[in-house]
Write a structure and sequence with these properties.
Blueprint lengths: L1 E4 L8 H16 L4 E4 L3 H10 L7 E3 L7
Parallel strand pairs: 1-2, 2-3
């Protein structure tokens, strides 16, 4: 599996999301998963807007629940 720490990422565009999707595709052929961790809210929204989180083999860390 490959873990991508997005904690310090403040901006992402479609080309970055496409790169992640292609990486997930390559990993799937070897039965590995792409794990995305620590995405800022605006990055998380982009991931969800384009549907990256629905691709087979992609795990996105859930947002923390605020009390």
């Amino acid at each position: 599996d490959v873990v991508v720490d997005l904690t310090d990422l403040a901006f992402a565009d479609a080309s970055f999301i496409l790169d992640l999707a292609m990486l997930a595709r390559r990993l799937r052929t070897g039965s590995a998963r792409l794990q995305l961790r620590g995405a800022q809210p605006q990055i998380r929204q982009l991931i969800e807007r384009v549907g990256l989180h629905r691709l087979q083999g992609v795990d996105v860390e859930p947002l923390p629940v605020l009390a």
